[in-house]
Amino acid sequence: MKYLLLIPVLFPAASALFLSIKPLKNPTARRLFTLAALALELGAAVLCAVAATDSLKLVSIASDLDIVLTLDSLGRFFSLLVAFMWLMSGLFSQEYMAREENTGRYYAFLLLSEGALMLLCFAGNYLTLYLGFELMTLMSAPLALHTQTKEARRGGMKYLFYSVFGACLALFGFFTVHAYGDISAFTPGGVLDAARSSGHEIFLQIALMLTVVGFGAKAGMFPLHSWLPAAHPEAPAGASALLSGVITKAGVLSLIRVVYYQFGPELIRGTWVQYTWLSLSLVTVFLGSMLAYKETVFKKRLAYSTVSQVSYVLFGLALLEPVAFTGALLHVVVHSAIKNALFFTAGAVILKTGKKDVRQLRGVGKEMPVTMWCFTLCSLGLIGIPPFGGFVSKWYLAQGSLNSGVPVFSWLGPVVLLISALLTAGYLFSVSIRAFFPGEDFDYSAVTRREPTAWITLPLLLLTALTLLIGLFPDFIVNIASAVAGMLV
């Protein structure tokens, strides 16, 4: 059964190879082939999640350097999220990419980036994780570069540079763990050898802090956050959704593996590293919200929102507290669903109206009521208003912060999260108000219905419903997150 783990990793690559070697000449056939591959990939991820699988060693580079696949609770959690959101993007892209050029290349890299992310999810040790992280960066960069405009090239190269720089910092963490511990397998609580580590705690903390900053770049954490608003505006909306809603979570997963499975949380509990990580997270939460509030380009506003919202997750992880950790994993799912839906909305509006600035969206709710109602409902979830999923995740984050006992941050965290929620309401509700209440001088007689087809509407409705269902029935995901938290914290 261990060879099942190869399917979600290799199948997307094989599908992309088929598109490259023997391209389907009919664009519709190409899109449907990719959609079928994404659906089968979700099935393969579910099969691996429910099957009992052993670790699989792929390659032995040296006596203690192996490429290993394994699947634990955390890997199942993230792999299912990746497979589902990639399928949603595939559905959305059926209509959105119909008039685009170079769609064969786009779909090939869409599949390749999913396979790389699956390798990251199934990584059994630090070396495999690092390989998956680098491959994911290389395979997803062409999605940001797809339109090949000057702005797209600038944003894509910025994404690539920041990611590679962050990976170099994380590589220092890899060398450090190799020198002071056992990198053969991820182990809850860490793998550092007490005898070798004794007297070198400061060096180990510096190495871990650099690693946190490095992997935090992918999650959009200050000071390496600016690739997000640079990469999004010119990328296809389906790619923007994945970059924002899912690929940023690759940084989150990598941080969990390194902090909780390699160095161990006890190394930094109550130290300058924890306080610095908490400070960077809260600065990013506030900074991202303020920049989103001031931004007028639709997709760029959503990108700044991601800068803020993903650092909610990082803050929960940095508290080293089980309830906060549970809230962090909940917010991973909730934010992925909401932010994919919001970017799908932006893409639908751009596709149907050509409007890219929020100041141009006056009355668009009359033209695209279903699309903008999905945007509004998901906005309620992102703000954290019950009964949507965002309320549940933020409740756990706030409770975990208050329970943590971390000086200052135990109360400062909820305060900053509340201020961020108010700013979130400002930059999202202003879009809905402008869309649905254009004013008395608006020419209602000129309104033309411009709703997208079911290819876009269906994933929008599914993601909106998921956000609501998580808020109404959170126990299933809470139990999974709590089990992982109980094992690590």
Tally of strands:
2
Helix % is over 70%
Q: What's the quaternary structure here?
A: single chain
Overall geometry comes to globular
Mind describing the biggest β-sheet?
2 strands, antiparallel
**Mean pLDDT over the full residue set:** 90
Strand content: under 5%
**Secondary-structure content class:** mainly alpha
Q: N-to-C terminal Cα separation, in Å?
A: 30 Å
Query: Whole-number radius of gyration?
Result: 22 Å
| Poorly predicted ranges | none
Question: What's the total helix number?
Answer: 19
N-to-C order of helices and strands:
HHEEHHHHHHHHHHHHHHHHH
What strand order characterises the main sheet?
Answer: 1-2
Task: Provide a descriptive summary of the structure in words.
- The protein has a two-stranded antiparallel ribbon with strand order 1-2.
- The relative contact order is 0.10.
- It has a domain at 269-489.
- The two termini are 30 Å apart.
- The chain has 489 residues and is mainly α.
- The longest helix is centred in the C-terminal third of the chain and has 32 residues, at 322-353.
- It is built from 19 helices and two strands.
- 73% of the residues lie in helices and 2% in strands.
